[in-house]
Design brief:
It contains 19 helices and two strands. The protein is mainly alpha-helical. It has two domains: 179 residues, no CATH class; 200 residues, no CATH class. Strands 1-2 form a two-stranded antiparallel sheet. The radius of gyration is 22 Å and the shape is globular. The N and C termini lie far apart (63 Å).
């Protein structure tokens, strides 16, 4: 019932909104809630740890207000006090993951009205929305679902910051309190996009967005650096490298480890974006993910064209923001990640920004073809009129 109320609101705002697709997406997402629940009952899972934290906590709700893991307990506590059991709390967080996909749909569809077919007859947006790995990691009690919701809220709201200011603030709060360093990437991406996008945006609007985001980074720098234990550091670069190396070693010992320390940067990025790929799949989940990663790789190859750099240079602010967030996040995470299980989970936060860039690039090429055909048709009609 709550879903239908939310869908009604967006259907009135956007004529292109598909109630059928969003309802189907919800039931599809519920399947992954069931799959993850089975997985959590049979394997070590962070969701069990969060649940146990609530069982042993005896303080007040606002004592839990903070960043990182603490904030997940803060979000969970009111439902726990209402009597929600583990499965109900899992479903609540899974629902927040679904809302993330709803906002992703709004973001993509609003900015790219053209439909794109891949693999001859598959709708690209539908394919992106139904990637299994994305749903698996956003269907449980933990950071994955709410951080994805916050990111998609932010990207949808930043397209119209004046009209969606409260949604923009809420998305920013969620991102910062779950992963402060990701908020830094998002803030830098938003500033980069607004300052360099091809749209004619009033200077005061650019200045407002830039000052707000840069000011937020300045005020929150201690919490952001605190994620890596770098607050008050005298040499950020050296200490970041040392901390990253230690975390990478620790993760590498946690099973399904990958020794990425000697990899060149390009191979590190390839590992983060597209592995596991069959031969290094750690388990059945890894094999399923390998099929999805292969599709990621095929889609990525579509932008490896000579005109892509020129496309980025002339692209609108949302494209530049998306590619900035994607690349900054990828660079940072490749220095820390060395465990395929962690990689599969972490990249679900940022891959949608790459998908948006790919989708926009393909849509731009299709639009240019449509315009060229139209011009040729008009020229042909003019020549025929002259002959007559």
């Amino acid at each position: 019932m709550l879903n239908q109320a939310i869908i009604n609101v967006f259907q009135k705002k956007h004529t292109w909104f598909s109630r059928k697709k969003m309802n189907f997406l919800y039931f599809y997402h519920l399947i992954f809630y069931g799959v993850y629940s089975w997985y959590a009952y049979n394997n070590p899972s962070d969701s069990i740890r969060y649940w146990n934290d609530l069982n042993f906590f005896s303080g007040s709700w606002f004592e839990l207000f903070g960043t990182d893991t603490t904030f997940i307990n803060f979000l969970s506590y009111p439902f726990y006090k209402l009597g929600f059991n583990y499965d109900m709390l899992m479903l609540t967080f899974a629902w927040s993951g679904y809302l993330g996909f709803l906002y992703a749909y709004l973001f993509f569809r609003e900015k790219i009205p053209l439909k794109i077919k891949v693999f001859k007859k598959i709708d690209l947006l539908t394919l992106i929305l139904f990637f299994p790995n994305m749903h698996f990691w956003t269907a449980s009690l933990g950071k994955g679902a709410p951080i994805f919701l916050g990111l998609m809220m932010f990207t949808y709201a930043i397209g119209n910051p004046k009209g969606r200011i409260y949604l923009l603030i809420l998305g920013s709060i969620i991102i910062f309190h779950i992963r402060p360093h990701v908020f830094m990437f998002v803030a830098v991406g938003a500033v980069t996009g607004y300052m360099s996008g091809k749209e004619k945006i009033a200077f005061w609007k650019k200045a407002l967005i830039s000052v707000t985001m840069i000011g937020s980074l300045f005020l929150l720098q201690d919490q952001i650096l605190g994620v890596m234990g770098l607050q008050g550091s005298d040499n950020l670069i050296e200490e970041f490298e040392a901390t990253s190396e230690k975390r990478s070693e620790d993760l590498g010992r946690a099973g399904s480890g990958v020794d990425m320390s000697s990899y060149p940067l390009t191979l590190k990025l390839f590992t983060f974006w597209f592995r596991p790929l069959f031969i290094d799949a750690p388990n059945i989940l890894g094999i399923i993910t390998s099929f999805e990663n292969l599709i990621y790789l095929i889609l990525f190859v579509k932008i490896l064209k000579k005109d892509f750099i020129n496309f980025i240079r002339k692209s609108p602010s949302m494209v530049k923001m998306s590619i900035t967030i994607f690349l900054l996040s990828s660079f940072a995470m490749t220095f820390v990640m060395s465990n395929l299980g962690i990689i599969m989970r972490q990249k679900s936060m940022v891959m949608y920004f790459l998908f948006f860039v790919i989708y926009y690039y393909l849509a731009q090429k299709k639009y240019n073809k449509i315009i060229r055909r139209r011009k040729l048709r008009q020229q042909k009609i003019k020549r025929m009129e002259v002959v007559v």
